Amino acid sequence: MAVQKKRTTAKRSGSSKSAVPVTIPARKAKAAFVKKGQHIRVVNTHGTQVVDCWALNADNMTEFMSMEHCRVFLESIIPRKGDVMVTNRRRPIIKITEDSASGTHDTLLAACDRYRYELLGCKDYHANCTDNFWEAMVMAGYKPVELPSPFNLWQNTPVEVDGTIKPNAPVTRKGDFIVMRAMMNLVICLSACPQDITAICGNKPRSAQFEIF
Ligand SMILES: [Zn+2]
Question: What pTM value is reported for the model?
């Protein structure tokens, strides 16, 4: 399986303080290289946007942040500030160093895809995080080999006491942010979820923002 060679022009100097904010357009995704030791800050610009987050080993795309392995490692379904997220090889890949939303994220649900929207009644093609992932990774020069399960930032879908999971409206605030430190050279991919059928993005997909520093 091919492994990417080309890397983006994203800042690779770990000492740089002049982070340039990058907009993740509504319904779209962006991918960028992050050097070990650098930080990624993702901002919920409008306060209502779920952002699907993936992190892949930049040198070997078969290794990636894995939600099922993180849940074992953390003994929790809710990653919080200070927690280390691990790969499908159980190695540290990112550490959450700041989280203004105090763990209001999801590690259980799959990325949305065209089939999800078909089941929700869409007759025509609907933008989705799965296609966003592949498109953004290819646009940034990478060739992932599979779609990992996403870390769904700000997605308000907790498991209720009766075991159900509902697509609740967001409870986050404008400007909420999370900061993650890269624990290996990685590629981050962030999708502003196009979900507008259920309430998870407030029924109105919006843009978000990230920066690497
Ligand atoms: Zn989505």
Answer: 0.91
**C-alpha 18 – ligand 1 centre gap (Å):** 30
CA of 186 to the centre of ligand 1 (A): 22
**Is residue 186 within 8 Å of residue 198, measured between CB atoms?**
no
Ramachandran class of 83: left when φ > 0, alpha when ψ lies in -120 to 50, beta otherwise: beta
Mean pLDDT confidence for 73-78: 97
- pLDDT greater than 70 at residue 2: no
Q: Are 111 and 52 in contact (CB under 8 A)?
A: yes
Q: Is the dihedral of CA 69, 72, 73, 74 positive or negative?
A: positive
Average pLDDT, the chain: 93
Q: What is the residue extent of each domain of the chain?
A: 22-188
Bridge partners of residue 24, in order along the sequence: 208
Closest CA to 105 of 170, 189, 162: 170
Rg of the chain taking only CA atoms, in angstroms: 16
Ion ligand 1: residues, CB within 5 A, are: 112, 129, 193
